[in-house]
Amino acid sequence: MEKFKEMAFLHPMVIVLAIISGVYAGFLGWKRFRFRRGLGSASDFPWKKHIQWGKRFYLLLWIGSIIGVGALFYLKGTLLTSGLHAYLAVLILLLFSIGVVLGGKLSKGKGTNRLALTHMAINYSAFFFVLIQIVLGVIFLTFFL
Ligand code: HEM
Ligand code: HEM
C-alpha cells in the first residue's frame, strides 16, 4: 500500500506550534522575574495568561511527540528508532513535566520565590535541549526519511 510520506511533516509542524507557545510563556514569565528584581511592576506579569500558554505549550508538546512516534511507526513500522532524537525527547518531556508540576504548585499559590526560580531554571534549560532537537530533527527529516 502506498504510504503518505507527508505524514512526516505533521510532527514538526505541531512541535513548532508548541515551541512558539512555550517561548511566549517563557517571555511572560520573564516579566515576573524582572519585577522581582525591581525592574517593571508586579502588574506586568499576566499570571493567568502565563499559565494558559504554559498549559497550551505542554499539551502541544505531548501531542507533537506522540505524532512523531506514530508517524515513524506508520512510515517504517518501527518504534523509537531515531536514536538521539528519541532519547532527547524523553529528557525534554521529563524536564518540562517537572517544570509544569512546579508551575502547578505555584499556580495554587503554594510557591515561594525560590520555587518560582527553580521552575524557571528547569523550563529555560530544557529549551537548550529543544534547540539541539530541532537540529537533529531537520537532519532526520532531510536525510533519513
Ligand atoms: C503549565 C505550565 C506552567 C504553569 C502552570 C506555570 C505557572 C507559573 C506561576 C503560577 C508562576 C508565578 C509564581 C508566583 O508568582 O509565585 C510562574 C512563574 C514563572 N514561570 Fe511558569 N508556568 C508554566 C510554564 C512555564 C514555562 C513553559 C516557562 C518557560 C518557558 C515558564 C517560566 C516561568 C518564569 C520565568 C517565571 C518567573 C520566575 C521568577 O519570577 O523567578 N513557566 N509560572
Ligand atoms: C521539542 C522538540 C521535539 C521533540 C520532543 C520531538 C520528539 C520526537 C519523537 C518522540 C519522535 C519519535 C522518535 C522515535 O520513535 O524514534 C520524533 C520523530 C521525528 N522528529 Fe521530532 N521532536 C522534536 C522536534 C523536531 C523537529 C523540530 C523536527 C524537524 C524539523 C523533528 C523531526 C522529526 C522527524 C522527521 C521524526 C520522524 C517521524 C516524523 O516525521 O514524524 N522533530 N520526534
Report the β-strand fraction as a percent range. Answer: under 5%
Can you summarize the main beta sheet? none
Helix content: over 70%
Give the count of structural domains: 1
* DSSP strand count: 0
- Averaging pLDDT over every residue, what do you get? 95
Q: What radius of gyration results from the CA coordinates? A: 17 Å
Query: Regarding quaternary structure, how should these chains be classified?
Result: single chain
What's the N-to-C terminus distance? 17 Å
Bound small molecules, deduplicated: protoporphyrin IX containing FE
Q: Structural class of the secondary elements?
A: mainly alpha
**Uncertain runs with pLDDT below 50, 5 residues or more?**
none
* H/E element order: HHHH
Number of helical runs? 4
Principal-axes shape call: elongated
